[in-house]
Amino acid sequence: MTTEDLIRELNSNPTTEKEIGYNNAIIKILKESTLKSDPREPLKKAFNKTGNLSLFHTIDYPDIINKLNTSKTSGSKLQAVKDLKDATGLGLKDAKDIIDIFFELK
Question: What is the pTM of this model?
């Protein structure tokens, strides 16, 4: 079960205000721990939102993640798109769509 699946399950059936409060606290902890524990998660979400999740698993993680995070920090979307295209063989539109989402994520 993925973090997203667990969050969906927690949101689906709360019956009391107390359960909703507990579930919201658990969801917050899950989201925070996922982002802290896996630096690939924002990029994975971007790939997933564009329907390219299967390609995500073929990437050389440390290299491309470092390049994309550097580009994100400096605000260079163009360089990030180029780096992603080079690393994955994606077309310009798909790479741009992924980078747009990746730059929006915290």
Answer: 0.63
